[in-house]
């Protein structure tokens, strides 16, 4: 409707102006015409983007030449509509109203229901619209630059409108107009640049003509050139006035706008102006805005500042004019390399790289060092940018003496650059991750890092005369860098901890990867045996060198006729195994042999023979040494023990990756363990490795049995060996040495998990005879081990032999204890041990939260998935254990404000949070938790005799932390179960020692009182209507009471089932009569008594219960009024998370006021809930599961069924 009115106004304006309707070929009535049909406004044309921007602008210019008012009005409405405003400027408004009035009018017509407008809308169409919007402004100015923009009408009107809109309080107007004004300014900068170039050309032509001799000088041409220069100067002045108007009217105010996106637009465009027209804008008057904005709070604005500066520093001619700016803001740029926004930090490093290229003297050594260490950043883009900076700084400068050096080899240029890389790696002492350094340099220096020929030459060749050789530490660093470069080339993905995962390689990258792998194999198949021979005794170098073969293409050994080099490699591996006992070196040898011994390649037989020979020698040596070591009557010396240990360690390491079952090592290892258990003087490392080796023997045996490759009788043998070894580990758990006990515990937990009932899964029922279930004594020993060795203070851990003060040792000890706890928790999760054994683990959740909180929490989560009810019983059991420990420490007269009791309550609160928000899923578990908690609270009588609270009554205060997880009807059920344990005297107690009971009962009745309100509403004359908020609350005296026996029967029945603390809040005489009556009913043995109360009339109800006869109708009415008032106080509206209100029940029960109703003025809002609502909710929440009547019957009660 608004667009139609706008069109009519435009037509009226044209007629009123006396101008005939004369339009251009593509414009009709201010609307664009396509295929001869008027169908779209200028905004719709730009939004659709189907027409070329050039043709749209040309049509608009043609229309402007014939009727500039109408066409300019359409352009004004274009900016209004691009802001998302539904209004339109009419011709009348355009002629008679100021810009401020028009903007105010448009603001009133703006749609405030949605904060979206075209520039903020998502989707490809609106992204394209933004591009088309900017292109339209640029093309419009470019097409008008020779005539229309100088008519002192169009540009003045547009600039005035955009300036006014940019100052609007409406974000859409401000954002859209700022973008339009900045793009308009950019277009004018291009016009000014063209004018400047034309003026320079005209000036040169004029000077050339004037310098001619008089006979050849053309005076007419001189006059024309002077006239042209004058016109260009006038145009230049006018353009500068326009730019000044936009800069001072829009930019100066909006570059510090409250909206970050608007500030970013301004900074982005000023960077374009300085780059396009540096003579006018590249000075301190404009650069200061970029420098100031680098301190902006929003990352996107800081990012625009850096990208704007990058465009300036990229041009060397412009960078020389930035010296003053650089000296002023250099420190800020350097600090932005540590920006919290990763994108900003990356661009800051790239900017410093450009600054470095422009001048070596700008950045100090401290500035460069602040960037150097970022090559070890976990964020890869930052590391890559820092790697490029490092490469430009250290590797890009060549002296004249380096031009004639060879391309490869020790004396090549790469040789000196590789040395520089090694020196840098060693100097960065805080970071020892060679893989991170190589990955950072890979994109800019991959050719250098893949020059393995030069690296090998630096390691193997002797230094030339006068050349300084690499020392041992530098050679170790070079070997590590070489290995990392090989890994990067063959795997083509960043190291662990940097990057989200492996990406899909392109065809070109795959070809490069295969070529690099071939080069690595051909080069190191020959060089690796030589390197191992040279550095055979060096642990670090050998460990890294032995990892290189896993990147080989093993087919090349055959196709390249390199078998002799393979034999040399196997001999060197044999030598390394013979000379070393270090675990890392032995594992590297085992892994290399496992990779080379692959049945898919033709070299398998050659490698398998060499491996068998090596293992034969090791096993024979071990058996021989063991016989001498275990000879009776002789005391083994340290040398014999060392020989046994070193040989056993080598066998164990190889057994981890290779099947050694044919050597039958179980007998010798079991004999060694049994002897150590009997004598007690076996070195701990021998026992530890013997256990580990025996563990591998059993696992390899199980693998053969599972695969079906074993012979008859193997399963029986495996069963005997497994059970004998488990018994052996169980006995070793009770020894003195910590390292032995920890090893025995870890292996025993792994075996119990492997040989549990899970072993029969996935169709492996034939392994049923191998299932091993720990008995109660073994479960108790495992639990005691955890309690004694895991849940200890840091200072109590003596496993590091006096090095506990070392931070690294503390971390290592904690890591070891976490592994022990995780091993045991897996037994709980997979139901290998009883779930309730986790109670002793769960109770430590708060005390050791920093060390083991994640493990314990995950264990609770997994056990809840297995069995919700059993998990809940375990949680409440852990709280009971802590409560009993507190009682034994503080006594039964402890203070409930003590730190111990508050800690248990906090733990209960944490446990409650783990149940989540879905109460229906945890309904049964929470109910069982409350049942066990109530039984525990009343289990032990008071040590002070009758009349005192039970010993564990304070536990109800802890149990109340779980009340919010009960749904409403379950709260009532739990409350009734609680009353089964209460006596009549307990209900009347108000002393402080009974507060836990009062508090717990209140927490159960916080949401259950809605039922009371619904009953009162049901017997009320008002029916089920909800009181209006504006209506005046009615008092009890004005309530019309129903008559008839049915009302009295319903009232007695309802009063009989009221919550106990509500009865105690009545007058003393009435409350005592009701409590006595209810207690009589609770003691009645007939289960149908309650149903009789519901169905009988008052006349038949009273004879059955004598105490009720004393209740007169007057007393009943008093109770009715009190309960009605109590329900209006909102007792049933308490949220589950609120603290129970106990003030009313803490008053003295003996000396209460005669009538608590008198003098009480309730000014709270009255709320009557319809009775049907509560009934509907109870139906939706499965009322059959918890029935208040069935809970009292042992045969069907839910607590008894659970």
Automatic annotation (TrEMBL):
Residues 1-27 are annotated as: Disordered. GO terms for molecular function: chromatin binding. Its main location: nucleus. One of its GO terms (cellular component) is nucleus. Residues 251-336 form the SCD domain. Keywords: Cell cycle, Cell division, Chromosome, Chromosome partition, Coiled coil, Nucleus. Residues 192-245 form a coiled coil. SUPFAM superfamilies: ARM repeat (SSF48371). It holds the Pfam family STAG. The keyword Coiled coil applies. Component of cohesin complex, a complex required for the cohesion of sister chromatids after DNA replication. The cohesin complex apparently forms a large proteinaceous ring within which sister chromatids can be trapped. At anaphase, the complex is cleaved and dissociates from chromatin, allowing sister chromatids to segregate. This is Cohesin subunit SA. The lineage of its organism: Eukaryota, Metazoa, Chordata, Craniata, Vertebrata.
């Amino acid at each position: 409707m608004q667009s139609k009115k706008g069109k009519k106004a435009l037509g009226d304006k044209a007629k009123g102006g006396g101008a005939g309707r004369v339009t251009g070929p593509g414009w009709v009535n201010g609307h664009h015409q396509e295929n001869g049909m008027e169908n779209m406004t200028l905004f719709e044309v730009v939004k659709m983007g189907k027409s070329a921007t050039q043709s749209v602008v040309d049509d608009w210019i043609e229309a402007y030449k014939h009727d500039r008012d109408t066409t300019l009005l359409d352009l004004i409405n274009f900016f209004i509509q691009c802001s998302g405003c539904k209004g339109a400027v009419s011709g009348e408004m355009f002629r008679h109203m100021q810009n401020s009035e028009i903007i105010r009018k448009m603001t009133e017509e703006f749609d405030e229901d949605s904060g979206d407008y075209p520039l903020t809308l998502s989707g490809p169409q609106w992204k394209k619209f933004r591009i088309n919007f900017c292109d339209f402004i640029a093309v419009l100015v470019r097409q008008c630059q020779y005539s229309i923009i100088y008519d002192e009408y169009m540009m003045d009107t547009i600039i005035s409108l955009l300036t006014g809109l940019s100052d609007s309080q409406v974000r859409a107007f401000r954002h859209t107009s700022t973008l339009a004004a900045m793009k308009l300014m950019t277009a004018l900068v291009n016009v000014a640049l063209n004018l400047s170039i034309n003026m320079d050309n005209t000036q040169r032509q004029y000077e050339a003509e004037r310098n001619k001799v008089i006979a050849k000088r053309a005076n007419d041409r001189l006059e024309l050139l002077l006239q042209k220069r004058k016109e260009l100067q006038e145009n230049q002045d006018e353009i500068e006035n326009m730019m000044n108007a936009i800069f001072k009217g829009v930019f100066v105010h909006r570059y510090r706008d409250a909206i970050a996106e608007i500030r970013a637009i301004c900074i982005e465009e000023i960077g374009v102006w300085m780059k396009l027209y540096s003579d006018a804008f590249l000075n301190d008057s404009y650069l200061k805005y970029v420098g100031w904005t680098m301190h902006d709070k929003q990352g996107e604005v800081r990012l625009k500042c850096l990208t704007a500066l990058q465009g300036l520093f990229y041009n060397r001619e412009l960078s020389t004019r930035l010296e003053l700016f650089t000296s002023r803001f250099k420190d800020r740029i350097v600090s932005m390399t540590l920006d919290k926004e990763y994108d900003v930090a990356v661009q800051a490093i790239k900017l410093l790289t450009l600054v470095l290229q422009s001048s070596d003297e700008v950045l100090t050594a401290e500035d460069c060092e602040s960037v150097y260490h970022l090559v070890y950043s976990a964020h890869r883009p930052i590391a890559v940018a820092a790697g490029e900076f490092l490469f430009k700084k250290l590797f890009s400068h060549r002296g004249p003496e380096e031009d004639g050096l060879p391309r490869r080899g020790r004396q090549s240029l790469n040789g000196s650059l590789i040395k520089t890389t090694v020196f840098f790696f060693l100097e960065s002492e805080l970071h020892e991750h060679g893989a991170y350094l190589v990955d950072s340099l890979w994109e800019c220096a991959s050719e250098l890092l893949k020059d393995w020929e030069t690296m090998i030459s630096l390691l193997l060749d002797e230094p030339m005369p006068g050349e300084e050789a690499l020392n041992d530490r530098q050679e170790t660093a070079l070997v590590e860098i070489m290995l990392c470069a090989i890994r990067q080339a063959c795997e083509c993905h960043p190291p662990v901890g940097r990057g989200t995962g492996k990406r899909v390689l392109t065809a070109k990258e795959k070809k490069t990867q295969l070529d690099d792998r071939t080069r690595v194999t051909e080069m190191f198949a020959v060089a690796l045996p030589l390197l191992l021979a040279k550095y055979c005794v060096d642990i670090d170098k050998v460990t890294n060198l032995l990892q290189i073969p896993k990147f080989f293409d093993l087919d090349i050994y055959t196709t390249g006729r390199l078998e002799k080099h393979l034999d040399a490699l196997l001999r060197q591996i044999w030598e390394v195994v013979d000379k070393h006992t270090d675990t890392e070196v032995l594992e590297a040898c085992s892994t290399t042999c496992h990779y080379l011994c692959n049945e898919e390649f033709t070299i398998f037989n050659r490698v398998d023979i060499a491996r068998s020979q090596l293992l034969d020698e090791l096993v024979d040596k071990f058996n021989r040494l063991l016989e001498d070591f275990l000879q009776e009557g002789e005391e083994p010396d340290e040398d014999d023990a060392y020989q046994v240990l070193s040989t056993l360690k080598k066998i164990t390491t190889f057994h981890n990756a290779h099947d050694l079952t044919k050597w039958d090592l179980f007998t010798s290892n079991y004999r060694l363990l049994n002897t150590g258990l009997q004598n007690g003087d076996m070195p701990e490392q021998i026992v530890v490795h013997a256990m580990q080796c025996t563990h591998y023997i059993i696992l390899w045996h199980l693998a053969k049995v599972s695969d079906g490759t074993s012979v008859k009788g193997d399963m029986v043998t495996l069963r005997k060996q497994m059970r004998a070894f488990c018994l052996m580990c169980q006995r070793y758990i009770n020894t003195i040495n910590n390292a032995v006990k920890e090893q025995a515990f870890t292996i025993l937990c792994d075996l119990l998990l492997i040989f549990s009932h899970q072993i029969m899964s996935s169709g492996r029922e034939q392994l049923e005879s191998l299932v091993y279930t720990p008995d109660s004594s073994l479960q108790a020993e495992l639990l005691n081990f955890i309690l004694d060795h895991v849940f200890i203070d840091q200072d109590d851990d003596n496993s590091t032999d006096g090095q506990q003060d070392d931070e690294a040792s503390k971390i290592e000890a904690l890591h070891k204890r976490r592994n022990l706890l995780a091993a045991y928790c897996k037994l709980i999760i997979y139901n290998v041990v009883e779930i309730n054994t986790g109670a002793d683990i769960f109770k430590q959740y708060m005390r050791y939260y920093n060390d083991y909180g994640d493990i314990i929490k995950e264990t609770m989560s997994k056990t809840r998935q297995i069995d919700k009810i059993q998990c809940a019983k375990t949680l409440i059991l852990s709280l009971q254990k802590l409560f009993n420990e507190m009682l034994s420490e503080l006594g039964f007269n402890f203070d409930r404000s003590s730190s111990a009791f508050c800690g248990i309550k906090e733990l209960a609160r944490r446990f409650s949070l783990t149940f989540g928000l879905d109460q229906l899923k945890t309904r049964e578990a929470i109910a069982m938790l409350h049942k066990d908690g109530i039984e525990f609270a009343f289990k032990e009588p008071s040590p002070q005799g009758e009349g005192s609270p039970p010993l564990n009554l304070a536990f109800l205060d802890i149990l109340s932390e779980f009340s919010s997880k009960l749904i409403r009807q379950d709260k009532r059920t739990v409350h009734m179960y609680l009353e089964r344990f209460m006596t009549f005297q307990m209900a009347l107690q108000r002393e402080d020692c009974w507060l836990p009971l009062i508090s717990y009962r209140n927490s159960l009745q916080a949401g259950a009182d809605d039922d009371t309100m619904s009953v009162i509403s049901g017997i009320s004359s008002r029916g089920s209507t909800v009181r209006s908020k504006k209506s005046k609350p009615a008092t009890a005296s004005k309530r019309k009471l129903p008559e008839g026996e049915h009302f009295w029967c319903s009232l007695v029945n309802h009063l009989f089932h009221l919550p106990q603390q509500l009865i105690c809040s009545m007058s003393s005489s009435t409350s005592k009569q009701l409590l006595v009556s209810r207690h009589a009913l609770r003691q009645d043995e007939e289960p149908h008594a309650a149903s009789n109360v519901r169905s009988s009339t008052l006349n038949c109800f009273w004879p059955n219960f004598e105490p009720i006869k004393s209740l007169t109708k007057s007393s009943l009415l008093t109770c009715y009024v009190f309960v009605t008032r109590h329900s209006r106080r909102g007792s049933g509206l308490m949220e589950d998370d609120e603290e129970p209100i106990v003030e009313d029940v803490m008053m003295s029960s003996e000396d209460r006021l005669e009538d608590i109703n008198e003098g009480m003025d309730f000014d709270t809002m009255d709320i009557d809930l319809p009775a049907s609502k509560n009934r509907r909710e109870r139906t939706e929440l499965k009322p059959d599961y918890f029935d208040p009547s069935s809970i009292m019957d042992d045969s069907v009660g839910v607590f008894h069924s659970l």
